[in-house]
Design brief:
By secondary structure, this protein is mainly β. The protein has one domain. The chain is built from 1 helix and 5 strands; from the N terminus they run βββββα. Strands 2-1-5-4-3 form a 5-stranded mixed beta sheet, with no helix packed on it. The chain is elongated, with a radius of gyration of 18 Å.
């Protein structure tokens, strides 16, 4: 099986590069929420159930200057619009 490094556009992983199996049409990545650690007055750390979601990215091929580029785009993101506007990863809140 061959792998390739691809750019993720949009969503929680915007701007990250990932190694994926070549030709994989879709990625589903787990997005873990940021949660503060809770410690009780007696110093114990109670078990906490943390919910997470999956974010889907679809393979998109872009062509230009005789080259072919493969990127994975989050659902609901227009890749051309995002790239033209010079998208940037949002600052952590």
């Amino acid at each position: 099986m061959e792998y390739e490094n691809v750019l993720l556009v949009g969503g929680a992983f915007d701007g990250e590069w990932r190694s994926v199996a070549q030709g994989q049409p879709r990625l589903e990545l787990a997005v873990l929420p940021r949660v503060a650690s809770r410690i009780t007055a007696d110093g114990a750390n109670p078990a906490t159930t943390v919910a997470y979601a999956f974010e889907a990215y679809e393979l998109t091929q872009l062509h230009g200057d005789g080259a072919r580029y493969r990127v994975y785009v989050a659902q609901g993101v227009n890749v051309i619009e995002a790239l033209i506007s010079g998208y940037r990863k949002p600052l952590a809140k």
